[in-house]
Design a protein that fits this description.
This protein is an all-alpha fold. The protein is 40% helix and 0% strand. The model has no long low-confidence stretch (mean pLDDT 84).
Length: 127
């Protein structure tokens, strides 16, 4: 919920909620009118978040293929890749294809790879 992210962004007693839709399971919804889509999403959010009031406003922005989405089984594939990667000391992989497509995820991925390489070089020199 966006209203928790920054103090003072939303008046007391109100919520600011952002919802993202997409992927193969939402393809039938893609062509729906904004009002129909808003009502459908708000109905779901009401149940999940215990919302009792009505939406004061809504905004829909549609972006075709905005973010890549991992398919079912992605984590198992990543774990298999990492298992094989351990056989090649001094090799590290990083990128948005692993554990998240957002900028913070990519930074974390690069930092993990860099830490691994630094530790790998350091332990190799101490032998």
């Amino acid at each position: 919920m966006v209203h928790h992210k920054f103090d003072g962004r939303v008046p007391k007693g109100f919520m600011l909620v952002r919802a993202f839709l997409g992927g193969p399971s939402y393809l039938p919804w893609a062509g729906e009118k904004d009002e129909t889509l808003t009502n459908r999403v708000f109905t779901e959010l009401r149940g999940w978040l215990g919302i009792s009031g009505k939406a004061l406003f809504s905004q829909i922005d549609r972006y075709d293929q905005a973010l890549p989405q991992y398919s079912v089984g992605h984590l198992q594939r990543i774990l298999r890749i990492e298992e094989r990667l351990f056989r090649h000391k001094g090799l590290a992989l990083a990128g948005n294809w692993q554990y998240g497509v957002g900028i913070p995820d990519c930074i974390s991925s690069g930092e993990r790879a860099a830490d691994y390489l630094v530790n790998s070089i350091s332990s190799h020199q101490n032998v």
